[in-house]
């Protein structure tokens, strides 16, 4: 409990989320220190807790029948995991995996729902968060249904460059609704045009303005 209270005091994002949380709810929260690639929640499974990310990065993805993964999002500090499933009392619609070492706050579903009823401040935050997720989901659906593979690849590279320090090549492949072979073909084409550099595990943008122009050509 002492470590949780220290986190609330020292972390602005977590402080904003939990500052009005009743003590009886706080007392039911548990801190989890997890390693990269060691924390996994499976699509289609049911879990009894909601998680708040204090630090680290986790990927949210769905898996097709052939085993291919499609990346939906990268969650970081302040994001919630499992809140929709707790509301609906249903199984997870996507899988979750830690990309880095993470610190999580674990809350049993029943206490999470009680917290929402007691804390109007958090209730408003949650509504905003769910609206943002719906907005992103709409944009992503448009990206997959209306954009060519090349547009998706370029958009994904730019989005990852703006939100992450490193453009992970594997995440680019997982984010595009096409076969890995098709994605690699586009990456090789963009590299031949000297717009990007494809490294063994990452991608570097060389000419961002020309990369944006190339996307408009499609």
What does this structure look like?
50% of the residues lie in helices and 22% in strands. With 218 residues, it is of the alpha+beta class. It folds into 2 domains: 2-123, Jelly Rolls, CATH 2.60.120; 146-217, Winged helix-like DNA-binding domain superfamily/Winged helix DNA-binding domain (Arc Repressor Mutant, subunit A), CATH 1.10.10.10. The strands form 3 sheets. It has a 4-stranded antiparallel beta sheet. A hairpin with a 3-residue loop joins strand 10 and strand 11 (202-205). Helix 1 crosses helix 2 (12-18), helix 5 (109-118) crosses helix 6 (120-146) and helix 7 runs antiparallel to helix 10 (208-217). The longest helix has 27 residues, at 120-146. The mean pLDDT is 93. It comes from Vagococcus carniphilus. InterPro entries: cNMP-bd_dom, cNMP-bd_dom_sf, Env_Response_Regulators, RmlC-like_jellyroll.
Question: How are the strands ordered across the major sheet?
Answer: 1-8-3-6
First-to-last CA distance: 55 Å
Largest sheet: 4 strands, antiparallel
Give me the secondary-structure category. alpha+beta
Number of H- or I-type helical stretches:
10
Number of DSSP-assigned strands: 11
Low-confidence stretches: none
The Cα radius of gyration reads 19 Å
Portion of residues within helices: 40-55%
CATH homologous superfamily placement of the largest domain: Jelly Rolls
User: DSSP strand (E) fraction?
Assistant: 15-25%
Order of helices and strands: HHHEEEEEEHEEHHHEHHEEH
CATH level 3 topology of the largest domain: Jelly Rolls
Give the overall pLDDT as a whole number: 93
Query: Any idea of the CATH class of the largest domain?
Result: Mainly Beta
